């Protein structure tokens, strides 16, 4: 059984009534992967905007493995202390990580956030030295469009994230940086300038799928089967 753990902020947990990119990625794997797989993690709820709590189970389609490690308003700062226990308890093979927007917006600058990435990686590998990780850069959003200083921090962090991924990549535990979806545009792919709509969910899932296949191919052989070929276009 191949186990994927989505790790992220509000873009990953999603809100009541949404599918989430996690669902889109599950669809892709369901239709293309030849072996058993699932999504794992200590949480499975959506964010309930009415109560501002992560308590909703109202997925647009609940018929998929909904487990994850994501939270509204959480970043690298919050996930680094949690990831070791999560990997250990749920035996994750691949971490699909989308974090950074919250850190840069509220808690840490680019350099401090990059240090928390390193802590996250160390904690994950402490739980499983062979865990694979795919990291998504911070995607351009309405805050970066309206705030030049924040945009500069995002650009700086994305540079540091690429360097960190290159520095920490190793054969037994591949660490890959996903390419931001080339056609992703927050004006068309989000419903509020930040959170993905249906089109955005597909594009984010595609970005993870491309890098995920590369990460798996670079690691040691997995006896449970082979991942399908990468997809460079939005998943349908």
Notes on the structure:
This protein has 236 residues and is α/β, with parallel strands linked by helices. The protein has one domain: SGNH hydrolase (Rossmann fold). It is built from 9 helices and 8 strands. Helix 2 packs across helix 9 (198-218), helix 3 (76-90) runs parallel beside helix 5 (110-127) and helix 5 runs parallel beside helix 7 (148-168). Residues 221-236 have low confidence and may be disordered.
How far is the first residue's CA from the last residue's CA?
Answer: 25 Å
**Rg, nearest Å:** 16 Å
CATH architecture: 3-Layer(aba) Sandwich
Low-confidence stretches: 221-236
Provide a count of the helices.
9
Mean pLDDT score:
90
What's the CATH topology name? Answer: Rossmann fold
Kindly provide the name of the CATH class: Alpha Beta
| Tally of DSSP β-strands | 8
The domain count comes to: 1
Assign a percent range to the helix content. Answer: 40-55%
**CATH homology superfamily:** SGNH hydrolase
Topology:
Elements: E1 2-8, H1 10-13, H2 21-32, E2 37-39, E3 46-48, E4 53-56, E5 69-70, H3 76-90, E6 94-98, H4 101-107, H5 110-127, E7 132-136, H6 142-146, H7 148-168, E8 175-177, H8 186-189, H9 198-218
